[in-house]
Amino acid sequence: MEHYSLKINGHVYETGAEPFESLLDVLREKLRLTGSKKGCDEGECGSCTVLLDGKPVLSCILMVSDVRDREVLTVEGLPQGGEPHPIQVEMTERGGIQCGYCTPGIIMSAYALLQENPRPSEDEIRFAIAGNICRCTGYSKIVEALQAAAGTPIR
Amino acid sequence: MAQPENATSAAQSGPYDWIGSSVPKVDALDKALGITQYVGDMQMPGMLHARIRWSGVPHAIIRGIDTSEAVKVPGVRAVLTAGDIPGINRYGLAVQDQRVLADDKVRTAADPVALVAADTEQAAEEAITKIKLDLEPLRPILSIEDALDPTAPSIHESGNLFTRTTVRKGDLDQGVKESDVIVEETYRTHLMDHMAMETESSLAYMDPTGVLTIITSTQYPYRDRRQIAPALNLSMNKVRVVQAPIGGGFGRKDDITSEIHAGLLALKTQRPVRLVYTRRDSLIANTKRHPMLMKFRTGARSDGRLTFVDADIYGDTGAYLSLGAFVIKKAGIHACGPYDVPNIRVDTHTLYTNNLSSGAMRGFGVLQAAVAHESQMDQLAHRLGISPIDIRLINTLKPGLATGTGQVMDEGCGIEATVLRIKEYMESHDLRFTRS
To answer: What is the residue range of B18's domain?
Structure first.
């Protein structure tokens, strides 16, 4: 067991962990940041997506020892001043959420996209969330919600 | 009449005004914020982690299960086999043909044979790999044809044909005589996993009043309780099943999944036990969509009017029935699709095999039947030189006409309008059916 000091959502968390433990397991089981979900635990489904230094990554296939001195952003870190992020609001109001299990991962992929490209096209949105599997919605409502969050026209 | 708490302002002007408007799901914002607690997100003080050892072979007699090395793994608190079950080692949604843990035989590679609870998931995982199974392989029944073979060994006590259902209408021979063209084909559909994003999961603990409480990702807590209590030899009021937020079900969380196993481990260890299936566990175990073998003969007159459907539908329900007989019966009920067919003979056959078991999955048998009846329509259209759209329009059910099982359509029957919309769309976009 080693000691880790992790920068997550602007705070510093101190925790013990084995170096080979996944960032996802440390977030969920040790730090109790359970917004990031475990759907496959092998980098296929996107439910565990978080941002590492601003880039979307799959936290289930990232070892905790690899994130020392780097900035991690999870879905819990998106609200500002107690207000949900516009992506979170639009996903809620436009039917982008059914069972909700893929939702945090989708939101983090979308957040990373809008940081890089504030006015993405529909194709760019679909490409950005291509690594996030949703079994409920059929994606259309998600894409509409993300277009609304970006302020771009909805089909 | 009940209204959602956050119904939109339209709801305030009249009790029904919100019908037809989009109302945010009451729990959606919590999900967007990541604060919803699914079972796998929960922890309790002293909580143990559980893992299941699956049989890995489809059909075998169990000679022995050696857990002596597994119990030595540091952190392991319990290793259980069928002999540890305090109640009746049987459960099932429709018939009780499933074992909580395999006892006499292994009937599918997804049979659970042993359970482990340990301080960590890693210890539990290590322990299940150290359980040694002594299995005497039996001839496996791996296809519908195998199951129909009269010399095949019986998977359960009473043969591999669980049940047969029939649909009859009109006079089949007359329908055949009136036909100008007859299409005869065999169709197969494959096994399919629901692949809900959240895997099956339960958190079980004894509450301070001695009630076994199981928080679980389920579609049906009361039916779960009815199956859990007898297996654990508890009276019904000593089992409480709490339905957690569910990360997708699509039918498969209708069945018992992790509930009895987590409950049994909590009962034995007197500690909270969390059992969260890995994706691999989820793919191995629990119900799938039924593979079907469908032999169809369909006739039509030269004007495109259907004359008869003559079909046998064989469904592979795997080692356990779940809701198989109902799914496969429904495939038979829907075998003629949304069309007016005057003469019908449809038989369905629900068969046990040693494959993974199938059960409820969205569509519930109707999709498999659609593969067959719609392919038949396309073939008839091709043979008659009629467009695939037109042959459907000629035959769609309309108000006043009856389905094969006698349900008379009323004004709610929308298939003709639907097909007309498709036709208009295709024509206005210059889309055509092409067939080489």
So the answer is: 9-36
